[in-house]
Amino acid sequence: MNLSASSAAKLPSLSSPRFRGVFPVVPTTFTASGELDLTSQMRCVDFMIDAGSNGLCILANFSEQFVLSDAERETLTGAILKHVHGRVPVIVTTTHFSTDICAQRSHRAQLAGAAMVMVMPPYHGATIRVSEAQIYEFYARLSDAIDIPIMVQDAPVSGTPMSAQFLSRMAMEIKNLAYFKIETPGAASKLRELIRLGGQAIEGPWDGEEAITLLPDLHAGATGAMTGGAYPDGIRQIMDAWTSGDQEAATVAYGKWLPLINYENRQGGILTAKALMKAGGIIHCEAPRHPFAPMHPDVRAGLLETAQRLDPLVLRWGK
Hints:
The protein has twelve helices and ten strands. By secondary structure, it is an alpha/beta fold.
């Protein structure tokens, strides 16, 4: 069937993506004794939307997904998607080594209302990897199981190098594989090459890693940013200026927020968002689950001092 030029122009593509902007990762909130704290969880979600998130991502590594049971994953997915109630699109991370389990997780996420799934290539521990051919088949079979976009998370934690050539080939050949969160060293160069090779098939070239490389990634063509969850209002200042064509304002905003971005990326890590949300009265407890260690008091003090200079909404929303 032939498509008219006008209808073809409406197809999702690099120049007409379904999703763009700031999609921060939602942290998972626990009680001091380690149970899920759904009351705090929903306040966290409400804050992140109020702070300007264009969308959200749940069950990612920065959500401490690796300490959650399968039943808890389902509880969180259902509760958060119901609570968001379509206010913003929600990406659900469904990574699993098993192709079938990943496909099942992704299908359930779609039925619950997910706008997209984010999936890392199959890996386990420090040494168990699969070949490029198996990775291709993994994503192809995942695509066959769902009707929503797939985002490939290309991050060092998987220990699985994937070239821009390989990623672009998958984008052109696998129906639903269209978004790429690039967090590898030299992210901007990889994004630029990915876009050059894949063209319009690269619907979503996205920045990650807490926005530490956001400005060069935007210069390379990134249209989305998946960051930590504590200050989407700050990241929006950068993204909105860039999207409006004001590169100078985006550069100034990036310089303004970079100390906090750097503190999260290099010091506070996964626990940064919860520490700031606890300080701002949004959540009741910032503790991780054992055996993940709590944030050192000195690191927390430095984080709060850095954030206070910027007056982000996270420190005011719950007070």
